[in-house]
Amino acid sequence: MRKLPVLLLFFWIVFSESSYQNAPFFFSKSKGKAAIQTVAARETASPEIQAVRQKIRGFLISNGINGNVAIVKDGTILFNEGIGFAHFSDQSKNHPSTTHPIGSITKAIVAACVLQLQEKGKLSIYDPVKNYFPHFPNGGNIELVHLLTHTSGIQEPHGHTAHHSPETLIRLVEHKPVKFSPGSQWDYNDANYVILGLIVEKVSGMPLHDYIQKNIFEPAKMTHSGFMTEKDKSVHSSVGYWKRMNHLVAIPMRNPNSLFGYADIYATALDVCKFDQALTSGKLLKKESLAAMLKPGSRSGYGLGLYNVGYAFYSRGVLGGWESLHVYYKDDTSITVLLNVRDKNLDIHQLAKELFKLTASEIPSPLSRSGDSSFYTV
Predict the structure, then answer these.
(1) What pLDDT digit, counting tens, does each position of 82-93 carry?
(2) What gap in Å lies between CA 212 and CA 169, rounded to an integer?
(3) Which residues contact 299 (CB under 8 A, 6 or more apart)?
């Protein structure tokens, strides 16, 4: 593949003319039920949309992308296709209905749950954690907002992501001192969202998965999304691979119980776009809650489950052989990329930027395989 210089500095200048903005700028012009119905509709595409789809398809194939991509703009599906193979062993292909684990994109969904409960008056994001876990370290000073923004200072127990249940994690955290005072530093830590998942259960009186199904998936019409569990670790329909040199290595799924609250959801690419559309159209949260969600809690640009880079918000997930990214731009374009081949030399952020250029009828740059992700902080 030809390598052209990565134009990261150019994109920084062009796209960051406006720094962090208030969330109402992100609030979709297409509001409510009609927007969701449009996303779900199976209408005959216009010649213009067909031409855009052909360009996107050719770009993905020429750059060796393997996974699923969905692009929705103003409630209209511009692209929703699978590229490459879901299973290389039997050569079964990725289709629009192929589901992949979405990794840490799950955090944005859990953050939306917390904000919904705040809207219902059942909690406040400024509640101290000790209200829910009396023995929590520094629990009188650590607030839910610190968990949401990864500024709590709690320690993640070594190896918890592979072996420990959520309840065991809480006990382990309770026996470890905090690393810094809450709000003073940013430290991305999956354990924050495990704790938030348990708090959602305590406050709602429902298992977390049931709450998400009823209050996120159903109103957003995410009909192809679900949860990986110990009983069914491979409920998703793709296999995740690592690319090492010119070889692909299938990576086994980790214990789903250890992914609770931060990485145990699977979805199609279109379903993740539907989440973005529902989030910004008022279907899931009030405008004030969306503003809180997108307010950066640290220099990282991370708000409540999402990064805000001024012209867009996004989150990224990495789990085993899967890598995922969803980006919502201020012009109401939502792009979701779900890859089931992880290539350390492929920059998923650059891929999303080139796809966005295609939606604006611009000429994309061939993807650099430098792996330079410096434009984003993840």
Answers:
(1) 999 999 999 999
(2) 21
(3) 186
Contacts (Cβ under 8 Å, ≥6 apart) of 320: 101, 240, 251, 252, 253, 254
Residue positions counted in the chain: 378
Q: What is the DSSP string of 252-271?
A: PPP-GGGGTTTT-EEE-HHH
Count of Cβ atoms closer than 10 Å to residue 33 Cβ: 11
Integer Cα distance of 163 and 169 in angstroms:
10
3-state helix, strand, coil in the chain (%, to 5): 35, 15, 45
Find out whether 308 and 294 touch, Cβ atoms under 8 Å: yes
Give the dihedral of Cα atoms 291, 292, 297, 302; nearest 10 deg. Answer: -60
- Enter the DSSP assignment of 30: S
For the stretch 355-372, pLDDT in tens is 999 998 666 666 654 433
Pick from 207, 209, 193: nearest CA to 144: 193
What global pTM score does this model have?
A: 0.86
